[in-house]
Design brief:
4 helices; 137 residues; Rossmann fold; 3-stranded parallel beta sheet
Length: 137
């Protein structure tokens, strides 16, 4: 591999290349779900979720998305904050072979007519947004 100019500034113990595992991202979740199912995968606001629970929720959401017509190559917009719900949606979308498109969860302005038009007529594009209850509006 050819040397890059910035690599000469690396510390001596920093590798210039990394060997990535030859497995898909959804498999990265399946491995600990099988090996250590009871270990916490995430702790969010004091609530723990095990790898087994997370994997189960991902599979349920992937099935629901598949029934809604999301398939390999589709783009799915996630307009969610960093939370367990984001993790579940992220892994579910990837497990179907679809493409995750992150959208700013702080963006609250209604979509412009031009942007809405694009979303309506783009083939295979789904957006997930948090649902506000009437008391939260």
């Amino acid at each position: 591999m050819e040397s890059r100019p910035w690599q000469r500034h690396y510390d001596y113990n920093v590798p210039t290349t990394i060997r990535y595992p030859r497995i898909s991202v959804p498999e990265l979740l399946a491995l600990p779900a099988n090996a250590v199912p009871d270990k916490p995968a995430t702790i969010f606001h004091g609530t723990e979720m095990s790898f087994y629970q997370l994997r189960g929720l991902v599979l349920r959401m992937a099935n629901a998305l598949g029934e809604l017509g999301v398939k390999k190559g589709d783009r799915v917009g996630l307009q969610l904050p960093t939370s367990p719900q984001y993790m579940i949606a992220y892994y579910a979308v990837l497990s179907l072979g679809a493409i995750v498109t992150n959208m700013n969860p702080m963006y609250t302005v209604p979509l412009s007519p031009k942007y809405s038009f694009l979303l309506l007529f783009m083939s295979g594009f789904t957006v997930f947004r948090p649902i506000l209850l009437a008391s939260e509006r």
